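Progress note, sequence design subtask.
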């Protein structure tokens, strides 16, 4: 049985970034994932992207992931929030956020999913102090002073802390008997990317529609100079299923009905993706020699693009606590980690859940009230700055 400081189960963006950060700090790290990592890389653009908030970027900088991205991220300079119905002009009452109101740096950046995966795989291959086992299954037995990890081929490790980064269906969370509160949404998310005739100028759109929020996220121009945006919108399961059966021309027309004509003519780029939506929150973030990070601890509605950012901030908080500790798995350290991250995650869960429920309705009195609310906030600079700093992860 080989000794290691920390074992991380799950090599998604959060688990992998945490592994790199800890290994760079001199900790010995075992990283295990059920999937082989190279197939996660998509050689062609597939339409998927991440929103990386300003407050989450330091982790990507510290691990070298930001400088390793093969495709340039696109800064988000402004965010426009509006209300309306498909096929109709947006309400004249809107809310506009400009990053210059809080500083020189942008709100965040839109990063291609394949770009981040490629950077992760390259950095993992180069990392010292890190043992990578993928694909492999891990069996974990925890005790008060260590955890024993046995891989599918019989290889065995002993760690002082196990980190569950194994997603919303976390096996480690279930084995620790940590309860979870779940939020069911009668919605699915539709994800794709479009090329458009006019430049987006770094402006992101959050357009609230009766079926659910519609987001247009600015991406870097393609190699041929085409202007590109990521599209993420939610609708009922039935509507999303119907959209999935449409040919590209009719699907693009549905996107255009929701987007409007401010970006000119559009065409679909890459694939389309549909995901049923839900949210969850673990009642505890730790057990004996176990910490939950990312989606194993919490999952939220994608309305604000904050899911990955919360996970990255989990990793940052846990890494800082481990840096100052001789033993990375003591109950006191894990309790401090929970106190550091639980309020932020719960606040974002409640905020995104409330926004979706408020805006995913077509009742005229509710629509009027929320339009007036958007217009009122737009005239309150201090409140706007508070919202912006929260979204940027720097509050």
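Output:
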């Amino acid at each position: 049985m080989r000794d290691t400081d920390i074992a991380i189960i799950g090599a998604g963006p959060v688990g992998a970034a945490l592994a790199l950060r800890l290994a760079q700090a001199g900790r010995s790290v075992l990283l295990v994932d059920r999937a082989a990592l190279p197939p996660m890389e998509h050689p062609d653009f597939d339409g998927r992207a991440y929103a990386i908030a300003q407050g989450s970027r330091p982790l990507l900088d510290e691990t070298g992931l930001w400088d390793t991205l093969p495709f340039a991220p696109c800064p988000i300079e402004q965010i426009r929030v509006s209300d309306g119905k498909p096929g109709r002009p947006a309400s004249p009452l809107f809310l506009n956020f400009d990053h210059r109101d809080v500083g020189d740096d942008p709100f965040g950046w839109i990063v291609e999913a394949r770009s981040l995966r490629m950077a992760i795989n390259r950095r993992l291959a180069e990392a010292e102090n890190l043992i990578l086992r993928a694909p492999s299954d891990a069996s974990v037995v925890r005790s008060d002073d260590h955890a024993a990890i046995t891989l599918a081929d019989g290889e065995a490790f002993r760690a002082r802390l196990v980190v569950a980064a194994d997603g919303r269906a976390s096996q480690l969370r279930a084995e620790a008997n940590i309860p979870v509160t779940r939020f069911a949404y009668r919605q699915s998310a539709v994800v794709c990317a479009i090329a458009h005739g006019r430049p987006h100028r770094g402006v992101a759109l959050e357009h609230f529609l009766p079926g659910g929020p519609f987001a247009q996220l600015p991406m870097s121009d393609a190699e041929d100079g085409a202007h590109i945006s990521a599209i993420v919108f939610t609708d009922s399961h039935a509507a999303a299923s119907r959209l999935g059966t449409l040919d590209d021309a009719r699907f693009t027309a549905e996107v255009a009905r929701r987007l409007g004509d401010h970006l000119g003519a559009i065409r679909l780029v890459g694939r389309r993706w549909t995901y049923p939506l839900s949210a969850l929150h673990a009642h505890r973030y730790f057990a004996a020699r176990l910490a939950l990070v990312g989606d194993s601890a919490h999952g939220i509605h994608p309305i604000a693009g904050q899911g990955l950012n919360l996970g990255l901030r989990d990793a940052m908080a846990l890494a800082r606590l481990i840096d100052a500790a001789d033993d990375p798995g003591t109950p006191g350290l894990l309790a401090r980690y929970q106190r550091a991250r639980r309020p932020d995650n719960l606040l974002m869960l409640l905020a995104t859940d409330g926004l979706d429920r408020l805006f995913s309705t077509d009742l005229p009195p509710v629509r009027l009230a929320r339009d007036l609310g958007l217009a009122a906030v737009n005239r309150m600079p201090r409140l706007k700055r508070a919202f912006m700093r929260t979204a940027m992860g720097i509050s």
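The chain has eleven helices and 19 strands. Work on this subtask will continue into the next period as scheduled.
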